[in-house]
Automatic annotation (TrEMBL):
Its EC number is 3.4.11.-. It holds the Pfam family Peptidase_M1. This is M1 family metallopeptidase. Signal peptide: none annotated. Keywords: Aminopeptidase, Hydrolase, Protease. Residues 372-564 form the Peptidase M1 membrane alanine aminopeptidase domain. InterPro entries: Peptidase_M1_dom, Peptidase_M4/M1_CTD_sf. It is an enzyme of class 3 (hydrolase). The keyword Lipid biosynthesis does not apply. Residues 719-743 are annotated as: Disordered.
Length: 743
């Protein structure tokens, strides 16, 4: 047994006395086997491994919309590349439209009830019992190989297995075709991410078409085939590839789409072509390519002819488009470090004047800010399409709400809501369209990360923007709610209970706290950008994010991921007690025997909890160091110099209790007798030896009149009433917090 010096024994005794014997829940233990074992595909650093691989799927598609019957008909040729080390006996294809088929598991697995007052709108009653005349789902007409021979296939709800006559080995490719059609859904009646909106005043439709073609499922090193059924909440895991798409619509329609338009001279007027060319060099404001007057004129006619718009897109995971004769169209160029994508908006007159004023500007602001925090935007266009009561994203194009009233008037709430949703949906180009996480499994990896950068965009590009998700104070009502209705962030999309709070707000807030309070902007921004660079156009998992953030910053964050992402604890730290000490001064004690009755050590109740500083300070007697404490050391400290150094200093012993369970940094604001203030920031690791109660002593030159924990509300502490000393002191910022959080 090794010898332990007397000094070490004393230190251990003091440490035990200070930290106590509180319950130890291993909040600072490493995630260890909670994360998957690193391998040659995904390294322990969070980077893709030397043998990382992913599949590829290229599409050639012809699609037509019948504007009279609202039926979409399509045919596609898919070439699938097996880059995996595995032999594939079959392929899985996603049939997402089947979520609305008669035998869909979505409606069958949803719970339902009738209102207590026995009063319900007819439309809601129809949805409650799933009674609708809508005939949804894909109508598969043919599945053939490249030689035109029929392939054996099995449809299981929203998934279709195609059986291969010959197994695909590593490096093989396989080309096959699918013919299909489906009835486009009325989003007002049926709902859905894609569909159409009908405008009864002019008898026109706006089609926002998504999940419209059979799409290859992902096969990867994590899950094999990601063929988890689509029930409606968990979105999509998709394979990158190149697209060539021909879209046939009435010739008076304007089409907005993923990709680059290949035949403008065939589908645009000479004036529209000229304006589009002007937009490519307009960096200060949008250029109207189709004006409101021109769109209004087309609303009154119906073309008898058709046009086919051709779009190409490279290295995208999906494809969506919108079509209507009602669309106004504007565009503006954006300079992203020499790349010059077009920011564009398409909207009916019902969106004006708000959309003409704000939509493309929001697209521009999004591309600039997201490129700063992730990678430079790589695609040729970024499009915002106006659609009622929706926010939904696809590569290069998204569908967004925000509509003035009939007179064209709108409130700040409507304006900010529209700007926020455009930033969010355009931002999805980065998460998950480029940094391609599995939405079917982990909603937060795209929604949460995206909401975080959305918050950064709102704050950096707009003055006093009322961001709803991101600020720590806004998550408090959710965090302190009934835990039986809260699940960890690391929960599958279909099992989440409070979708917006769990998948959007909480992870966005967690990342904001990680950036501002735990890591600091410099370390966080570098690591977050490194994650984006490593996993752009690849398939990251949560472990890849967690590991990269630590690898690129040298900050151990396992405690943070465990608390914020794997648990449901909340932050509630109580500033339980504050004691004031000074070094004992013999002269002062002799001369002030009577007046020193205020000193706790002399006239107060030592050890009793203080309510304020009115009892004055306790005295500490500094003794000479016992020689035994030096152990084998021969040199000695100057005890008198230490007494002199601290003669007029103030020592404050603070006691903190962690009643919420979630460990957190401590931000302490001191107010001194001269009115000045000072902030101390203590890392969360202070809780590593006792996760329930800790004490810490602070040295201050000046006397303190007030102590506030988390003064700027940056840790999401759910109870600020116990964050001040004296308790009577309640800074105005806390009153503002209580008002905002409805306390």
């Amino acid at each position: 047994m090794k010898n332990i010096s007397l000094f070490s024994i004393v230190f251990l005794f003091v440490q035990s006395a200070v930290f106590g014997q509180g319950k130890y829940e291993q909040k600072f233990e490493q995630l260890g086997t909670t994360l998957p074992t690193p391998n040659t595909y995904r390294t322990g650093s969070g980077a893709p491994g030397s043998e990382y691989w992913q599949q590829k799927a290229d599409y050639e598609i012809n699609v037509e919309i019948n504007d009279e019957t609202q039926v979409l008909t399509g045919s596609e040729k898919i070439t699938y590349f097996n880059n995996s080390p595995d032999v594939l006996e079959y392929l899985w294809v996603q049939l997402d439209q089947n979520v609305r088929s008669k035998d869909s598991n979505t409606a069958l697995s949803q719970t339902s009830s009738l209102p207590a007052n026995n009063t319900i709108p007819g439309r809601f009653l129809q949805k409650t019992v799933n009674d609708t005349d809508y005939d949804g789902g894909f109508k598969i007409a043919a599945v053939k190989n490249n030689n035109g021979q029929g392939l054996s296939y099995t449809i299981n709800k929203t998934m279709m297995r195609i059986d291969l006559n010959k197994p695909m080995k590593t490096g093989d490719s396989f080309t096959f075709s699918i013919d299909w059609s489906y009835n486009i859904n009325d989003r007002m009646l049926v709902g859905g991410r894609g569909g159409y909106e009908y405008f009864p005043k002019d008898g026109n439709y706006s089609y926002t078409i998504a999940q419209w073609y059979p799409r290859m499922a992902v096969y990867d090193d994590v899950n094999g085939w990601q063929n988890k059924q689509f029930l409606g909440s968990g979105e999509f895991a998709l394979t990158f590839g190149d697209f060539k798409v021909n879209i046939t619509v009435p010739s008076d329609h304007i089409v907005a789409s993923t990709g680059s338009l290949q035949n403008p001279e065939q589908v645009l007027t000479a004036t529209e072509q000229k304006r589009l060319k002007e937009a490519r060099t307009s960096f200060d404001k949008p250029v109207l390519i189709v004006t409101m007057a021109e769109a209004k004129k087309k609303e009154k006619t119906r073309a008898k002819t058709k046009s086919t718009w051709t779009f190409h897109a490279e290295n995208v995971r999906d494809f969506a488009f919108a079509s209507s004769r009602k669309y106004i169209w504007d565009a503006q160029a954006v300079d992203i470090n020499g790349k010059k994508p077009l920011a564009m908006s398409f909207y009916p007159k019902e969106g004006n004047p708000l959309w003409e004023e704000e939509s493309t500007k929001a697209v521009v602001n999004t591309l600039i800010t997201y490129s700063k925090y992730t990678i430079d935007y790589p695609y040729p266009v970024a499009i915002s399409v106006h659609a009622a009561s929706i926010g939904m994203e696809y590569p290069m194009i998204c569908f967004n709400f925000g509509r003035p009233n009939e007179k064209g008037k709108y409130t700040d709430k409507v304006k900010h809501g529209m700007i926020g949703v455009i930033i969010h949906e355009v931002g999805h180009n980065f998460f998950p369209m480029i940094i391609n996480s599995d939405e079917r499994q982990w909603t937060w990896m795209d929604e949460g990360l995206n909401t975080f950068v959305q918050y950064r965009t709102e704050q950096e590009q707009y003055e006093n923007f009322p961001s709803k998700r991101g600020p720590a104070r806004n998550i408090v009502p959710y965090m302190k709610g009934d835990k039986s209705f809260i699940r960890p962030i690391m929960t599958n999309s279909e099992q989440i209970l409070q979708f917006g709070n769990n998948a959007y707000a909480k992870p966005a807030t967690a990342l904001s706290i990680l950036r501002e309070t735990v890591m600091g902007p410099e370390l966080f921004d570098y690591a977050f950008k490194e994650y984006a660079k490593r996993w752009a156009f690849k398939h990251p998992t949560p472990a890849d994010l967690f590991r990269t953030m630590e690898d690129a910053s040298a900050v151990d964050l396992d405690w943070f991921w465990k608390g914020w992402f794997y648990g449901t604890d909340h932050v509630d730290v109580t500033l339980d007690d504050v004691k004031w000490f000074k070094i004992k001064n013999e002269k002062r004690s002799l001369e002030n025997k009577i007046s020193d009755a205020k000193i706790t050590n002399s006239g107060g109740k030592q050890g009793a909890q203080n309510k304020d500083f009115s009892n004055g300070f306790e005295e500490i007697a500094l003794t000479d160091m016992d020689p035994r404490y030096y152990g084998e050391f021969k040199n000695r400290v100057d005890d008198n110099a230490i007494r002199q150094r601290y003669a007029d200093k103030n020592f404050y012993e603070l006691t903190f209790k962690n009643t919420g369970g979630l460990v957190t940094p401590l931000i302490i604001e001191w107010t001194f007798s001269d009115g000045s203030k000072e902030i101390d920031k203590i890392p969360a690791e202070i809780w590593r030896k006792n996760e329930n109660e800790i004490k810490k002593v602070f040295l201050k030159d000046k006397e303190v009149t007030n102590v506030v924990l988390d003064p700027n509300l940056e840790t999401a502490d759910t109870n600020v009433e116990n964050n001040t000393f004296p308790r009577a002191a309640s800074p105005s910022k806390f009153d503002q917090f209580k008002k905002k959080s409805g306390k």
